[in-house]
Amino acid sequence: MSSILWSDLVPNALQLLSPTAWIVMLTVAASTVIFYRQRAEVAKHINRIPGPPALPLLGNSLQWLVDRDEMFSTINGARLLYGRRQGFNRVWAGLKPYILISKATAAERILSSSKNIEKGRDYDLLKPWIGTGLLTSHAAKWHQRRKMLTPTFHFKILANFVEVMNKQSYVLVRQLEKQLNNTEGFDCTIYATLTSLDIICETAMGYPIHALEKSDSEYVKAHEKISEIILERLQKFWLRSDFIFRFTKAYTEHEHCLKILHDFAYSMIQKRREMYRQRKQSMLPETGSADNAPHSEEAHGQRKQLAFLDLLLELSEDGQLLSDADIREEVDTFILGGHDTTATALAWMLYLLGTDQTVQERVFLEIDGIMGGDRERHPTMAELSEMRYLECCIKESLRLFPSIPILSRTLTTGVDIEGHHIPSGTNAVIMLYQLHRDPQYFPNPEKFYPDRFLPENSTNRHPYSYIPFSAGPRNCIGQKFGALEEKAVISAVVRNYRIESVHRREDLILYGDLVMRTKGGLKIRIQRRI
After folding, report:
1. What is the CATH number of the domain that holds 484?
2. Residue 142, pLDDT above cutoff 70
3. d(C-alpha 261, C-alpha 336), whole Å
4. Residues placed in the known binding site for heme
5. How many other CB atoms are there within 10 angstroms of residue 55's CB atom?
6. Range of the domain at 430
């Protein structure tokens, strides 16, 4: 009876389907088959790589559902537990494969490629904030923008930024006087963050925002909050879906922060554009004059200090190459890249100098010798360049605590590493915290030992064993700017204060963030140098 019914019903039901329905059904069926075949091929290669057991559909995602305090140690633990010999292992974030890499030769295979330059998918969460600027853009757009912006970071142009860096460094020195009697210590991260924001805004955009002197800044709060939200989305895989995210409270806060950040960038662009327009109308020289340029750098004719935004405005004239939205995304990218990362590096440098008084005194003596014992005047570009031991200290600080602890690429072309094939579509994640601790290149890797970066100790080191600014074709365009800023700020603080760290390194709790942070901040005490 049932067989007769099925033989009657099925043909009748199939006859009711239209040609369009047939096409849709066949397309879905074919796509499903292709998807599972491709996934099976990817999984075949990925699962040959050592890694933790993965659940169907969820992969290893549940392992990342930990408190913020445990996030960083969990990720690093996953890297150390599997694939120690190869220097890499695999994890699954749902159906997406990730390869965690901490070996120089493996990192080189990824980062040196001129084809695999697409940033990892995790960077997509930054796009509502910074758009598709230099940091997050796809390969074709990145090539165009990189070529356009590279002249802005020429050494001669950077030299003109030193005045602003020195000025803001001594604003910091004055502000630190409030902490001279603080025996409990204070979080130097806060001061470093606000100083770095002041420097990046005035040098790149031409407008001092006095964040350090007005620390209750709406912009800084928005910056911190949106970073927390992005981190939460990275940690909780279901929040990566824009559809799901829109139904959360965090989405409302996210949009509020975006408005503050974007309004800030657009206001800076408009002010600078008006000054640019006034210069053209009055037929003044490009450097402007004191009457038309209210800020010191323009009053002295040092237009190169504003080269970044000026260049973008010139290219955007009549909307030929860059729209206001294009400029805004590069402005936001520049502020994000030049603010948080450098601030983090400054804070770690101050903290580490406070853990080793011998190294700190050696830095002071080098600076004092170069400056001829004069603690009142600012160092020149040439004098900053002479501070080679300070440079070694900065490098060692970035080795131990890189501002950006991970780098990622989405492979557009498969790569063979150590006998394993990594298929296209895989997220390759370079774990800098572990990479920089390879005892093959850095004996006694946990020790803060700046001498390891003296020329005689670093000449033959693998070029991809130390990459705090990334490496290869898509390295950090602003790394020389950041290094120069660090020298200016650290030299100013060390010339005026002795630094003592409150907590031992082993007591610090590192946690996952967009940059390398610690629970409770980095506390130091200071004493005035006599």
Report:
1. 1.10.630.10
2. yes
3. 10
4. 476
5. 12
6. 61-528
